[in-house]
């Protein structure tokens, strides 16, 4: 294992991951509109929730779902493609893990934009799809099921895929490098979401916050809402039988 090559993979993918598509795509498609961090008014109150990240959620809220979807795809592919390159070049080594962490770190703290980026979910799945595509699908699906059918909480469904990566990757690889990767990406997302969680908890103390309303601001969130309706309809059909 060459630690210098690990550093090269991390730094190179950090620089690629630092390309923030929330800033790039709207400039191409909407050159006359300037990006401004959107604010969401909490229904029935004068409280506002400020979206301080530069990810697909913010782009979707300001420029619409189509732009948000393009941003999300860009954020995924900017990590997927470099990680696949390292996987192809070094199939027996773990440099792809450093590449995935680097791309995700760049997405969250981009060097080109004063270290103000997204929250890391799209970049996380971009890396995981290249590392373990089956694991990405299984943990995401199981996380949605756990959140929607068991916990019945939208935010739990949003993040449970990350949590489930830890046991999944341990049982599938039994390699400490992969477990360390799973721990690091969980920490990165938690740290990145601290501003959002702080706002959310403050607002929640005063009023009831509908997490479904928050998820509707992101392409992934809207997909998860559709998935929750599928689970709900499936449950109703089962009860009728």
Structure commentary:
The structure is a single chain. It contains 12 helices and 2 strands, in the order H-H-E-E-H-H-H-H-H-H-H-H-H-H. Helix content is 74%, strand content 2%. The mean pLDDT is 82.
Q: How does the major sheet shape up? A: 2 strands, antiparallel
Helix content: over 70%
Can you write the helix and strand succession as a string? HHEEHHHHHHHHHH
Query: CA-to-CA gap between the ends?
Result: 57 Å
List low-confidence stretches: none
Structural class label: mainly alpha
Number of helices: 12
- Order of strands, main sheet, comes to 1-2
Q: Percent of residues in beta strands?
A: under 5%
Overall 3D geometry? globular
Please tell me the overall pLDDT. 82
Number of strands: 2
How many separate structural domains?
1
**Rg of Cα set:** 18 Å
Question: Can you describe this structure in just a few lines?
Answer:
The chain has twelve helices and two strands, in the order ααββαααααααααα.
Task: Set out the fold topology.
Elements: H1 3-17, H2 21-29, E1 39-41, E2 48-50, H3 56-63, H4 65-89, H5 95-108, H6 121-131, H7 133-151, H8 154-173, H9 176-192, H10 194-206, H11 211-215, H12 219-240
Antiparallel strand pairs: 1-2
State the main characteristics.
241 residues; mainly alpha; two-stranded antiparallel sheet; 2% strand
């Amino acid at each position: 294992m060459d630690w210098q090559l690990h550093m090269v993979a991390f730094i190179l993918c950090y620089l690629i991951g630092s390309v923030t598509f929330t800033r790039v795509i709207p400039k191409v498609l909407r050159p006359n509109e300037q990006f401004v961090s959107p604010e969401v008014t909490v229904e029935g109150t004068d409280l506002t929730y400020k979206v301080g990240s530069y990810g697909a959620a913010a782009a979707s809220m300001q420029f619409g779902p189509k732009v948000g979807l393009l941003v999300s795809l860009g954020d995924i592919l900017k990590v997927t493609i470099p990680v696949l390159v390292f996987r192809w070049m070094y199939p027996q080594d773990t440099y792809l893990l450093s590449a995935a962490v680097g791309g995700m770190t760049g997405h969250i703290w981009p060097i080109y934009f004063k270290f103000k980026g997204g929250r890391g979910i799209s970049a996380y799945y971009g890396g995981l799809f290249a590392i373990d595509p089956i694991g990405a699908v299984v943990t995401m699906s199981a996380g949605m099921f756990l959140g929607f059918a068991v916990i019945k909480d939208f935010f739990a469904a949003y993040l449970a895929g990350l949590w489930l990566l830890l046991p999944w990757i341990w049982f599938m690889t039994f390699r400490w490098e992969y477990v360390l990767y799973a721990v690091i990406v969980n920490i990165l997302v938690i740290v990145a979401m601290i501003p959002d969680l702080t706002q959310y908890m403050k607002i929640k103390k005063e009023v009831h916050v509908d997490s479904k309303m928050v998820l509707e601001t992101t392409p992934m969130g809207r997909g998860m809402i559709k998935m929750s309706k599928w689970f709900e309809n499936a449950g109703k059909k089962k009860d009728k039988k």
